[in-house]
């Protein structure tokens, strides 16, 4: 039990780190050329200088766009607790203009302790937003509009984007519009009237460099000496981590994995799988843990599902494939059974 207790505690600690985006991306925020520093400078300049800004965060899903933004906002709320207000919209939920303005009005009312009217019209919600932009500008308070799935807002007439950006230019306001999208061409989807009001600032979220990856692995997997673990266990655990990360076979594992999955989020899944298989008797990670994690991440689930099918189920799958080969995209049980009977008769 004495050996299992620190092992279980370290297991839970590291898995908790891997599930905490703020902790994960904190290690990547130190570089002055990093996206964290650039984004914080842009937003903080709006707060301190009282100006408007727009910016797009672009990159594949799982690259840390929303996590870095949340990290920046969390730090700014500590520095300027009474000068920052955040309005969050998601293109999957609020791409409809009426729904979007109603959600903006609701969040503004909640933020400023006002009564929200569900029956307000589109024009009333628009005028309310413009009035709040003006009042917050006079009070030197910055409103940050976060448009997640930004490309969804760039479809249709783009009335939300035009009205929001036009209001920022026509009234005395302090506002920042942050668009988050996995489409690298999201800015090209904007209409000319919207693009002329939207700045060309873009932050591209790329896979971590070798130096960033090494720093991230140490940040996530190492134990701290000031923790509740014994110094002997911490030293032994950290030495094992250094030995593993320096091994050429471990670097081959990472290279193989990053050839198919190059985002930070996919790396976290690999590490979580490896840590979860740690030997609780020794309380230490091994290279085999990462090898098994790689095999799990590379598992072909469709092939494994087919492997357990009966002969009859395989026949039915073949019939369905034949129907699709005939460009018949939709079919029912009767059409599949008809193909099955024809196949049996041909044998």
Throw out a few tags for this protein.
five-stranded parallel β-sheet, 347 residues, flat
Outline of the structure:
This protein has 347 residues and is of the alpha/beta class.
Write up what this structure looks like.
This protein is α/β, with parallel strands linked by helices. The protein contains 18 helices and five strands. It has a five-stranded parallel sheet with strand order 2-3-4-1-5, sandwiched between helices. Helix 13 runs parallel beside helix 15. The N and C termini lie far apart (64 Å). The mean pLDDT is 87.
Head-to-tail CA distance between termini: 64 Å
Major beta sheet, strand line-up: 2-3-4-1-5
Radius of gyration: 26 Å
The number of E-state strands comes to 5
Which residue ranges are poorly predicted, with pLDDT under 50 across at least 5 consecutive positions?
Answer: none
Number of helices: 18
Question: How is the quaternary structure best described?
Answer: single chain
The secondary-structure class comes to alpha/beta
Helix content: 55-70%
Write the layout of secondary structure elements.
Elements: H1 4-18, H2 21-26, H3 35-49, E1 53-58, H4 65-79, E2 84-90, H5 91-94, H6 97-111, H7 122-138, E3 142-148, H8 150-153, H9 159-170, E4 175-181, H10 192-195, E5 202-204, H11 210-221, H12 231-246, H13 248-260, H14 264-276, H15 287-297, H16 301-307, H17 311-325, H18 333-346
Parallel strand pairs: 1-4, 1-5, 2-3, 3-4
Helix pairs in contact: 1-14, 3-4, 6-7, 11-12, 13-15, 14-15, 17-18
């Amino acid at each position: 039990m004495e050996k299992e207790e620190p092992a279980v505690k370290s297991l839970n600690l590291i898995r908790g780190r891997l599930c905490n985006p703020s902790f994960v991306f904190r290690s990547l925020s130190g570089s002055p050329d990093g996206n964290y520093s650039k984004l914080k400078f842009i937003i903080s300049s709006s707060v301190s200088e009282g100006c408007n800004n727009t910016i797009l965060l672009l990159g594949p899903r799982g690259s840390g766009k929303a996590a870095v933004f949340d990290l920046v906002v969390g730090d700014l709320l500590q520095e300027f607790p009474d000068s920052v207000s955040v309005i969050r919209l998601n293109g999957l939920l609020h791409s409809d203009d009426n729904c979007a303005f109603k959600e903006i009005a609701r969040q503004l009312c909640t933020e400023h302790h006002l009564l929200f009217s569900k029956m307000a019209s589109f024009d009333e919600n628009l005028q309310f937003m413009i009035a709040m932009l003006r009042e917050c500008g006079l009070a030197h308070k910055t409103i940050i509009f976060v448009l997640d799935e930004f490309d969804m807002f760039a479809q249709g007439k783009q009335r939300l984007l035009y009205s929001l950006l036009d209001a920022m230019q026509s009234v005395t306001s302090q506002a920042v519009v942050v668009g988050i999208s996995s489409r690298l061409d999201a800015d090209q989807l904007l209409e000319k009237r919207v693009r002329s009001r939207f700045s060309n600032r873009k932050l591209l979220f790329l896979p971590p460099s070798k130096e960033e990856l090494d720093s991230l692995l140490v940040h996530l997997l190492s134990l701290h000496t000031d923790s509740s673990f014994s110094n002997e266990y911490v030293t032994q655990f950290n030495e094992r981590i250094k030995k593993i990360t320096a091994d050429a076979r471990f670097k081959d594992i990472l290279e193989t994995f990053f050839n198919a999955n190059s985002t930070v989020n996919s790396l976290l899944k690999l590490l979580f799988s490896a840590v979860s298989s740690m030997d609780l008797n020794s309380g230490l990670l091994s290279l085999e843990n990462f090898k098994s994690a790689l095999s799990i991440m590379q598992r072909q689930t469709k092939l494994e599902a087919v492997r357990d099918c009966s002969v009859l189920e395989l026949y039915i799958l073949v019939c369905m494939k034949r129907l699709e080969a005939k460009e018949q995209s939709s079919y029912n049980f009767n059409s599949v059974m008809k193909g099955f009977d024809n196949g049996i008769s041909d044998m």
